[in-house]
Amino acid sequence: MASTSRLDALPRVTCPNHPDAILVEDYRAGDMICPECGLVVGDRVIDVGSEWRTFSNDKATKDPSRVGDSQNPLLSDGDLSTMIGKGTGAASFDEFGNSKYQNRRTMSSSDRAMMNAFKEITTMADRINLPRNIVDRTNNLFKQVYEQKSLKGRANDAIASACLYIACRQEGVPRTFKEICAVSRISKKEIGRCFKLILKALETSVDLITTGDFMSRFCSNLCLPKQVQMAATHIARKAVELDLVPGRSPISVAAAAIYMASQASAEKRTQKEIGDIAGVADVTIRQSYRLIYPRAPDLFPPDFKFDTPVDKLPQL
Amino acid sequence: PMTPITPATPASESSGIVPQLLYAFKSRKIWNKNSENIVSTVNLGCKLDLKTIALRARNAEYNPKVRLASIQITCFPPLSSEEQSRLAARKYARVVQKLGFPAKFLDFKIQNMVGSCDVKFPIRLEGLVLTHQQFSSYEPELFPGLIYRMIKPRIVLLIFVSGKVVLTGAKVRAEIYEAFENIYPILKGFRKTT
């Protein structure tokens, strides 16, 4: 009999004779069995995993064996709520044709706001194609913040946006505040404020952003070939190492590096285009570019093929 | 687990640099937005018709939308000592008196003092934020300076790459000096070598 043993099912039941034994679960019969003596300890254990496999896709709405949605225990407070379903048969409609018992809507009212926020997070993440792991991390962060209640006065959307920002940072693929702004209705200022508050509330910190974090995204959005991207990464890294750009935001340095690399290659991009993608003003790119321009020959990677030689690079 | 309250300072060293106090704010009812000015609202001990005062007194601005009902009074030049700020507040009470309100000069209190100085060497903010995570916040996207919240004394320092430091949140002058003496050896440790 195939069984799976689940450690987290332990807290409540142990075999009276062998308290240390890990109970083995037989989900087919709904039993929990002690492996030492074979005693059936738990009976009629409810399986909270996903439902039986259904192959037919046509009658998806009318699956009579479903007892409810698959639980999301990590996030909501447990989906143990009852809804009144749509009526069948004549008795469920009153004189005007409206259904009696219209109350389908109230479910898990205690976490309505949280579920709303999760929906909002998923929407935002979807707009910039963020993978599921970031969304999950964001949801977790939001839940922690929400339960703590220290940021209760702030708009949930602001907290959600800030959580999304933090999740991206924690996963090692930071998004700029402006990118998060683009998919959220909250201002950059408010997201920044919430960001700092959340870090304080959860007592976490995030790594500092570097120029390399954004290279692949910006270069792809500009349709630049891989060599240009690698060159830009190299230029930005070297510029920071040589301390040519003290005090400049890494985004601005990255944008200037992309400009330099693209201008040296066959795929030239204007400052305005780069500024649009990176979210920096073109004067900002100009500023940073002026700082790295004097050392341009040292910044390029050694194996770079110049379409425009270094001395012909635009001087702004 | 409590983090160390103050960074350790070797007893032998003194920085030899004295932060210069820029302005002293006293604000109780008046809310000051423009940091160049001294805000003075001592408790004048009487009800004021803010609109009348704002209209008739020079150097006074009244912004009714701001949550705290208050008048901003601007003084030039920025005041450099506590005594001067008290004087300015007295002068203002006089102005309000002349406008016909029975103003008195009660509860004068300095609420905030700001100081600035220069350590004269560039600083590696990235290193500082790495080692002093619990106190520092450095987000180049949000603000170019590192925001260091010292716990003892409770002062907020804005530390910049150039080596300039702004200290704020002090109620008395000594706190500013103490905070600076605390931070100076740390900053020396993160001096840029190139």
Could you name the key traits of this structure?
heterodimer, A: 316 residues, mainly alpha, N-terminal domain of TfIIb, Cyclin A, domain 1, 3 domains, 3-stranded antiparallel β-sheet, 11 helices, 3 strands, 42% helix, disordered N terminus, B: 194 residues, alpha+beta, TATA-Binding Protein, 2 domains, 6-stranded antiparallel β-sheet, two-stranded antiparallel ribbon, 4 helices, 25% helix, 20% strand, elongated, transcription (chain B), TBP_eukaryotic (chain B), TBP_dom_sf (chain B)
Q: What's a concise summary of this model?
A:
The complex is a heterodimer of chains A (316) and B (194). Chain A is mainly α and 316 residues long.
Can you walk through the features of this model?
The complex is a heterodimer of chains A (316) and B (194). Chain A is mainly α and 316 residues long. Chain A has 3 domains: 13-43, N-terminal domain of TfIIb; 109-200, Cyclin A, domain 1; 209-310, Cyclin A, domain 1 (Orthogonal Bundle). Helix content of chain A is 42%, strand content 3%. In chain A, strands 1-2-3 form a 3-stranded antiparallel beta sheet, with no helix packed on it. Chain B is of the alpha+beta class and 194 residues long. Chain B has 2 domains: 39-110, TATA-Binding Protein, CATH 3.30.310; 119-193, TATA-Binding Protein (2-Layer Sandwich). Helices cover 25% and strands 20% of the residues of chain B. Chain B has helices at 50-56, 82-98, 125-131, 173-189, and strands spanning 20-25, 60-62, 71-73, 112-118, 136-137, 146-150, 155-159, 164-170. In chain B, the strands form 2 sheets. A 6-stranded antiparallel beta sheet of chain B has the order 1-4-8-7-6-5, with helices on one face. The relative contact order of chain B is 0.19. The interface between A and B is medium-sized, with 17 and 17 residues.
